[in-house]
C-alpha cells in the first residue's frame, strides 16, 4: 500500500510528465500519461503512458526514454521537490488490455 506522500508525489509527477510530453512530442501520435508509480523510498518513479495510434508505441517509448534527462530538468523547475527521483517511462499495457476487454464486451 502506497503512503500518502508516495501517492501525492506520483500524482504530481504524472501530471508534469503529461504536460512535458505534450509540449516536447512531435504530435505524430497522442501520448497520454495514465499513471506513475513511486518506489517506497521516493528515489525511483516509473511513468506509464498509452499511445494512439498504436503503431507509434515503440517510437513514442524510445522518445520518452531519450528525453528522461530533460524531463528531470523540467521536474526540477516545476516542482519544489528536494530530491529528484530517477525517472523511467513504460507503455501502460494494463490500460491497453483494459481497452481491449472493453472493445470485446461491446462487440458481443
Task: Summarize this entry quickly.
With 108 residues, the chain is of the alpha+beta class. 52% of the residues lie in helices and 22% in strands. The relative contact order is 0.18.
Summed over residues and divided by their number, the pLDDT gives a mean of: 93
Q: How far is it from the N-terminal to the C-terminal residue, by CA?
A: 36 Å
Report the uncertain regions. Answer: none
Helix content: 40-55%
CATH class reads Alpha Beta
Specify the number of helices.
Answer: 4
CATH superfamily: K homology (KH) domain
CA-based gyration radius? 15 Å
The biggest beta sheet reads: 3 strands, mixed
Number of domains: 1
Class by alpha and beta content: alpha+beta
CATH topology: GMP Synthetase, Chain A, domain 3
Provide the β-strand percentage band. Answer: 15-25%
Write the layout of secondary structure elements.
Blueprint: H1 4-24, E1 30-38, E2 44-52, H2 57-66, H3 68-78, E3 86-91, H4 93-106
Parallel strand pairs: 2-3
Antiparallel strand pairs: 1-2
Helix pairs in contact: 1-3
